[in-house]
Amino acid sequence: MTTTPDKFLEISKVGIDFPTANGPYTALKDVNFFIREGEFASIIGHSGCGKSTVLNIIAGLYQATSGGVILDGREVKDPGPDRAVVFQSHALMPWLSVFDNVGLAVEQVFRDSKTKAERREWIEHNLRLVKMEHAMRKMPHEISGGMKQRVGIARCLAMQPKVMLMDEPFGALDALTRANLQDSVMEIQKELNTTIILITHDVDEAVLMSDKIVMMSNGPAAKVGELLEVDLPRPRERVALSKDDQFNHYRQQVLSFLYEKKGVVDFDSAKRKAKESSEPSIAAEKVS
Ligand SMILES: Nc1ncnc2c1ncn2[C@@H]1O[C@H](COP(=O)(O)OP(=O)(O)OP(=O)(O)O)[C@@H](O)[C@H]1O
Ligand SMILES: [Mg+2]
């Protein structure tokens, strides 16, 4: 199958039912969107709507009940090094140094294609990209939370994935560290043209960083409520943008989806559920 440049990563009619004690729970139903190569996309939505589930399906960690994911012309069936994940908590191996944590991923991907010296240089190169070369020999417990996230990002970059999947990677950081890391990720993305999907709760972060924002409706049976293309020039500078009319217009659109439309788009389903439970339809007022 050939992929058009527009559809480097295609999420097509994805649905998932989780088994629960009370029977299957339909978390996602008919989720559709695509990402271009080199694009920075964010997924935003209320807590519990299914953002991580979408990411886990793309990563191949969860199997969709219906529909599927195609990356660069190939169907995603299981996890693979072409899709690297950065989690909210850094998930570094505590017994390995910063260098060796990145080295582990490099071994996995480049054991046969790079010499030992080339692998060493590649690890150092990726640590330089995230400005962590000075702490290569440190252990995870000796570095700060922001630094750990930098190492987690270096580890992903070092795998040269087709797409980098980031699940609230800045969520546990203070505002200044968060801003620093957002800038670093934008710089790296510009330099390497990496395709990135970022999950976030933060409207400003989504607008600042993204080319495209995927806004998800509330679950159950969550789907894409709205898609927003963010057409702002790069590099983007947060202080200047905070006074920019176009930036604030995009921001307003996301806020309106999340808090005025309450992330609810499927009013038919909301009405149906209300009828089933013989209660008035309150779905449109629910905010998690
Ligand atoms: N393995 C699972 N088994 C059963 N239910 C699950 C499982 N994983 C997720 N869910 C349910 O699916 C829904 C979506 O969960 P998910 O973690 O994707 O939400 P989220 O949007 O990432 O939330 P948050 O913003 O809080 O991280 C939730 O109702 C959750 O309870
Ligand atoms: Mg989540």
Report a brief summary of the structure.
This protein is α/β, with parallel strands linked by helices.
| Structural class assignment | alpha/beta
CATH topology: Rossmann fold
Mean pLDDT: 89
Determine the strand fraction and express it as a percent band.
Answer: 15-25%
Q: What is the highest CATH level, the class?
A: Alpha Beta
Radius of gyration: 20 Å
Protein model, in words:
The protein has 288 residues and is α/β, with parallel strands linked by helices. It has a single domain, classed as P-loop containing nucleotide triphosphate hydrolases (Rossmann fold). The protein has 9 helices and 10 strands. A 6-stranded mixed sheet has the order 6-7-8-3-9-10, with helices on both faces. Strands 2-1-4-5 form a 4-stranded antiparallel sheet, covered by helices on one side. Strand 9 and strand 10 form a beta hairpin. The longest helix is centred in the middle third of the chain and has 18 residues. The chain is globular. The N and C termini lie far apart (40 Å). The C terminus is likely disordered. The protein binds adenosine-5'-triphosphate and magnesium ion. Magnesium ion binds next to helix 1.
